[in-house]
Design brief:
By secondary structure, this protein is mainly alpha-helical. It has 13 helices and no strands. Helix 2 runs parallel beside helix 8, helix 8 packs antiparallel against helix 11 and helix 10 runs antiparallel to helix 11. It starts with a helix and ends in a 5-residue tail after the last helix.
């Protein structure tokens, strides 16, 4: 069974889908859950996002140091998924904002590291194989995550209909448990090489490196701000039905899949910097269009630009290539 799943990296494609489902049922709901479900002021949403993001950076550094010491990415992935399970169960039983904030800082920030650790595990496997195109393999992994987001947000909003957010949280927790068992049973545990930082001084990063990092950070920030504001904006400001945010997110995820897969081929022919520039231009037009959109079909049509932006952005800017 393991040999069959490992063929052509199928095992990692399945793990990517499971990992994507963990967040696809929850992250699109958080703004609505905090403001509408817990009746917290909208300002608290910003507090939650900032706190979880900062703690996520701290945990990423900690996980990176553990990897440098030789801890396997598979073990780190399982730790991250365990944190996600704890966060989801806490969200399902939360009755106040402080409980959600505490669970987000302690557990969800760790759970958000599941996708990077999953990509690392897959990259380690691919690096040991012959005739594996790393860029194409990475794009397939990203496409599998997007595939999880095609059905995840719409189903998540359907489960949470009528304010029953706990149903979506528990469903996501089940997906996380399945991913944990799947990783334990089927994912190879490669021994990681310890980093030899002390053997020779590290070369200083160039200006272009920092500028690229800034561009990726700003692109990610824009996407997070849009995703966080979309549910409240479309439901409370535009008066759309409760299921429409999930529909928008599912549509863009569906569009991202062929863009990510084809983007890997274009990356061999054109400059990645030029492709990222095109992606950012699509993002600018998309966000301006969202500001002026007033009908459901407007936002659905605009998802073409959003799909072009994030499909290229996520597929090309990944550090795992």
């Amino acid at each position: 069974m393991k040999a069959l799943l490992k063929q052509h990296g199928v095992i990692f494609i399945l793990l990517s889908m499971l990992t994507g489902l963990m967040g696809a049922f929850v992250n699109p709901l958080m703004s609505l859950f905090i403001v509408e479900g817990l009746r917290a002021p909208p300002m608290y949403l910003g507090v939650y996002v900032v706190a979880v993001t900062i703690m996520g950076l701290v945990i990423s550094q900690w996980l990176g140091s553990m990897a440098d010491k030789g801890t396997s990415a598979r073990k780190l992935f399982m730790v991250a998924v365990s944190g996600m399970v704890c966060a989801l169960v806490a969200f399902a039983n939360a009755t106040a904002f402080w409980q959600v904030l505490l669970a987000g800082v302690l557990f969800l920030a760790m759970g958000n590291a599941a996708i990077p650790q999953m990509m690392t595990v897959a990259r380690q496997w691919a690096g040991r194989q012959q005739n594996i195109d790393i860029t194409s393999f990475n794009s397939r992994l990203r496409a599998a995550i997007s595939f999880a987001w095609v059905g995840g947000p719409p189903l998540g909003y359907l489960l949470a209909a009528g304010g029953e957010f706990s149903r979506s949280f528990y469903f996501a927790a089940v997906c996380a448990l399945v991913a944990l068992i799947f990783a334990f049973k089927f994912i190879p545990d490669y021994s990681a090489k310890k980093s030899q930082n002390g053997s020779e001084p590290a070369a200083g990063a160039s200006l272009s490196f920092w500028l690229l990092g800034l561009a990726i950070m700003l692109g990610s920030t824009g996407n997070i701000m849009y995703s966080s504001a979309l549910p409240l904006y479309s439901i409370t400001e535009l008066g759309f039905a409760e299921h429409t945010p999930g529909l928008f997110m599912g549509v863009v995820a569906l569009l991202e899949i062929p863009i990510m897969l084809y983007g890997a081929k274009l990356a061999k022919k054109y400059s990645k910097v030029a492709m990222l520039a095109v992606a950012f231009c699509c993002a600018i037009v998309f966000y301006l269009g969202v500001f002026f959109a007033t009908q459901v079909w407007h936002l659905i049509a605009l998802q073409v630009l959003n799909g072009l932006f994030y499909g290229i952005f996520a597929g090309i800017s990944s550090p795992n290539e």
